[in-house]
Design goal:
The chain is mostly beta strands. Helices cover 8% and strands 24% of the residues. The structure holds zinc ion.
Length: 74
C-alpha cells in the first residue's frame, strides 16, 4: 500500500501541519484531516519502499550476455 502525504490547508493539528497516511491505491483522496476534520490536500505520493529497483537492475542477466559466441571457439 502506498503512503500519501497530506498537508493542512490552514493550521496543522496534533498530527502536524503535514502528515502521511497509508491508503489503498484506489482509495478516495482525503479532503479533510482524519484527526481534526479540517481541510487538507494531498501533496504527493511516496513510492512504496519495498520495491528495491536499483538492486534488481544490477542483477539483470542481460549484463552477462556480452560474451563471444560459442561457434568462434573450436
Ligand atoms: Zn488535522
Amino acid at each position: 500500500m502506498p503512503v500519501y502525504e497530506y498537508e493542512h490547508l490552514g493550521r496543522g493539528c496534533g498530527r502536524g501541519k503535514r502528515f502521511d497516511i497509508r491508503q489503498e491505491v484506489d482509495a478516495k483522496r482525503l479532503t479533510d484531516c482524519p484527526a481534526c476534520g479540517r481541510p487538507v490536500h494531498r501533496i504527493f505520493s511516496l513510492v512504496n519502499v519495498n520495491t528495491p529497483k536499483t538492486n534488481s537492475d544490477l542483477k539483470k542477466p542481460g549484463l552477462h550476455q556480452a560474451r563471444a559466441p560459442r561457434q568462434g571457439r573450436l
